[in-house]
Amino acid sequence: MKKSFLFLTGMLILSCGSSKIDESVTLQSEEAVQFDRSLMEVPKKADEINGINNAVSAVQNPFATATEIGAIMSFLASDELQGRDTGSDGIEKAAEFIENVFSNNNIKPYFDTYRDNLPDYDAPAFNVVGMLEGNDPALKNEFVIVGAHYDHIGLIAEENGDKIANGANDNATGTTTVLELARYFGKSKSNKRSMMFVLFTAEEKGLLGSKHLAQKLKQENLNLYAMINYEMVGVPLVGKDYLAYLTGFEESNMADVVNSYADQTYAGFLPKAKEFNLFKRSDNYPFHESFGVPSQTFSTFDFTNFNHYHKVGDELSEMDFVHMADLINKSIPVIEGVVNASTKEIKYN
């Protein structure tokens, strides 16, 4: 039976200097959605939830909240999912979770089902693809893809008794961002262009899921305006005057365009991202290759603020849910601007 999700709700300790959640955290349903508690083990100790403090009150446009983010993340990065390796039982549970989020928020399957199967993979492997039709008679024939990969690397060499690479930052954070954006647009239906929300499999195996889908959609002659990807957004940038960096910054005017939709500098340039050629190392790149349209990734991993890449230490406790809620809430007007612009403003240089 497919499982859905609940949002973690609880009282914040707002006393001076406190940075923890009250241990009386409770679970409540959203719209009476049924939930199998065996699928989501909410952290029980206050210090297991990082970054939920008085700053939560400063989050603007709080559609997403730190506690909601914590609940989603606590499932996607749980030990039960065993690191979400492509083809594993753990990633199957993640897929069921994603499908239920889509189904409960008016996001329809783009294909016959939500699952876009990879034909040549040894084990069952599939992207999860949802669609929200645009509300403008002319613009709804154009698509914007919002995506992230939901797989990780599974079980690895044991370290301090732990062998599960939970993949909290990489990339439960991007997955959570896409799910929350799908929830927002599924409820608001404020998009003039049609939107595709995609969680890719086998990114860690060489971008296999995104390569497969990009080629498939190209063969269908999809009218793609832009592809926006989220990767490793679980901790804030250090000492930057922008919220996230954009890979392939100089390839297009996407940063300028999205910044014009935001109330602060949303996208910036990170020299390290160019040095390590991150533009070609995430699921945006196959869409760039297949469609030749602006296809880029937002990230907040800056090579100084997170030391657990592909390690067992990539755990829930390392994530900053206040930052994530802030990013998601400030992404809403950015994505809304992209899908509602009267012309295709984002162009390659």
Overview of the molecule:
By secondary structure, this protein is α/β, with parallel strands linked by helices. The chain contains eight helices and 13 strands. The strands form three sheets. Strands 3, 4, 5, 6, 9, 10, 11, 12 and 13 form a nine-stranded mixed sheet that branches. A two-stranded antiparallel ribbon has the order 1-2. The protein has a two-stranded antiparallel sheet with strand order 7-8. A hairpin with a 2-residue loop joins strand 7 and strand 8 (162-164). The radius of gyration is 19 Å and the shape is globular. The model is unreliable at 1-61 (pLDDT under 50).
CATH topology label: Aminopeptidase
Order of helices and strands: EEHHEEEEEEHEHEEHEHHEH
**How many strands, which pairing sense, and closed or not: the largest β-sheet?**
9 strands, mixed
- Poorly predicted regions are 1-61
CATH homology-level superfamily:
Zn peptidases
Any idea what the shape is? globular
Count of helical stretches: 8
Total count of domains: 1
Distance between the termini: 48 Å
Strand segment tally: 13
- What CATH first level would be assigned? Alpha Beta
What are the salient characteristics of this protein?
13 strands; 349 residues; two-stranded antiparallel sheet; single chain; alpha/beta
